[in-house]
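Bench notes, bay 3.
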Amino acid sequence: MFTRLLVWLGWAPQPSPPAPPSAVPDPIPSAELPTAAPESLSTAPTLIRPQPTPVVLERFDADATRSLVARALAGEDGRFPRAPDRAFLTSLARRVGEKSLCLPPFPAAAREVQKLLQEEQPRTLDLVLVIESDPGLLSRVLARASGAGYREPASRLDQAIARLGLDELWRLSWAACVRGLSLDLPAFRGASDDLLLHGRTVGEVTAWLANERRGAPYLAGLLHDVGKLVVFLAANNETDRDFALRIAEQHHAAVGAIVASTWQLAPEIAVAIAHHESPSPTHGLLARQLHLANLATRHVCGDEAVGEAEVEAARALLGTATPLDAILAKVQQVLDAEGDRAGAEATTPVPGSGLQVRFVAASGK
């Protein structure tokens, strides 16, 4: 029924004869993801050799990509005998078809923190008031500022902000947004946690390659696999985990780029996410930085599909003078820091958000 509805809406072609039951939906090749008219990009980061000619950056067409993904999923409607698998594909196709992707609301506190941090000199009082309004973000900020690297836990929110710095606060607010997309089902919890860690690591390495502490490089890395989390959101307790993982692997780049567009991020972020598996010069510098950071992280984490040769090829495509050993060492450094931080935060008592935080906010200190 859902396929007929998509055909009537013009989102799907007339149904073709079914393929064998073992078939799995084909991914949309990166080169086929639709793009709009190109625009010029002329940035040359410190760690990257300048391009000999201006780079032409394609723009991501979210509406056309929604249609492509919906068609790909609708074409599989009759190819799977298990009702839960068909229900999963139907749910995912409906989600992709919605302008909002049926995502949870963007956390108001995180968005407000990001808005305040765009100011040249944000007021600590304003940040305190906003962070205090979100218990989850408040807990993460206090925990991060009370880890093993400090002699004593942060007892006040303004103290925690001063310890962390604005760049780290910005990253924490974005990490909170992405964590809100995790599916809290036992079958997918481990995969979701792994994706969150992988995204943070790739974000750090991409930002390092671009020599930017805050901005598009970190976000592109953090969000490059967010499409997998969105695919998981269409699952339920009856969904076959391996089947959902395969669908996520095949369509995550396109879905992730739609997320970036839905959240109205910089256009180059959506392009980089859409093409991070196989970028070309027309996809821009950020796509190639992300491609290298992703492959380097996968290699260091033991992904057998990515050897040093693949990482070296990505390094050559980017044209960076940074040696391969230095890039792999950076990945390991970030992973070690993540592990140390997770261990410290798990064992460090976090101050409550009661009178101390409210007194700081009221006094403006």
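Next record in the batch:
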Amino acid sequence: MAHQNANDLITIVVPVYNAAEYLRRCLKSLLNQTYKHFELILINDGSTDESGAICEEFASLDLRIKISTQPNRGVCASRNKGISMARGRYIVFCDSDDAVNPDYLLELHKMAKTREGFLPVCHIRILGDDHDAPQKALEKYVFVSDFPLLLEKNLFSSVCNKMYSIDIIKEFNLKFDESCPAGEDTLFNIDYIKHIKGFSIANESLYYYYLKEEEGLHSLYDVKRLEAVKVIYKKLESLAAQLGSSDKMKFYIRKNALEEWIFVIWQYALYGEESIYTKYKTLKKILSIPEYFEISAEMDYISIPSKRRKVMQTKSGVLILLYCKLLKLKLKLKSLGRSRK
């Protein structure tokens, strides 16, 4: 067992953009850590609300806080700026509208020191709108070739439930892709795990992800996200081949990609702002690409309503759009019925 050094400096990077409503909750949870030796880097990404003032307020109370202000460039550029400023041996990322358990740093750091070469990962607790769902537990150690197990348990894609080695990030010049329209966390993790032995999994849900009613509307309906799903699938598939992952692990990759694809297709068909004709052309293109045909064979293994499954199995953009039109009409009539009671 490696010697545990409580003096390791940990860098926390928080991109901040118009997060005044949630920022105090986030910062209080970070300053309340039982592991005290950290620096907190706040990247004010061109906020136009009170976020900047809140950052200054907290920085005046705690010398561990550093603020960098930039014109709005997005979360990837903000995280890259944080990496460039980091002085710690380890680094974690937290979103400004989320929060963490008091032992978040302590437990992740303990795992980093106990089994070197293994990436510390914690479970995520999903909160909000009467929703409180901790994730299903995974075994304590997972070798890197079995990384699709983390995909299956929804532990892989986020960067906020992991503690990274600054040495690995800087030695291999790892950065977030600032041109990526979606899936930037997954792409970063794909690059990072090429340089590790495996994952150390904490049983506890140490990161608190807060659901918000309005969150991600643009990304959910943006057709660019459909292209991102394809890119990520091909990279995961390539990584599995490179690492010698088993057929079962490759199945998890196909299953995860299909779930993502269907979710984005469905959101786009239901709520995308383009004309019906434009959506039809887009769906026709997406549904005909070889990668979708390849993974659609796993349709019976994913958890979706049976009617939606049957519609998706037709691979017909017309039927998908027609079904979504009828579904929206049904929901509207149901809502009108409730409002009259």
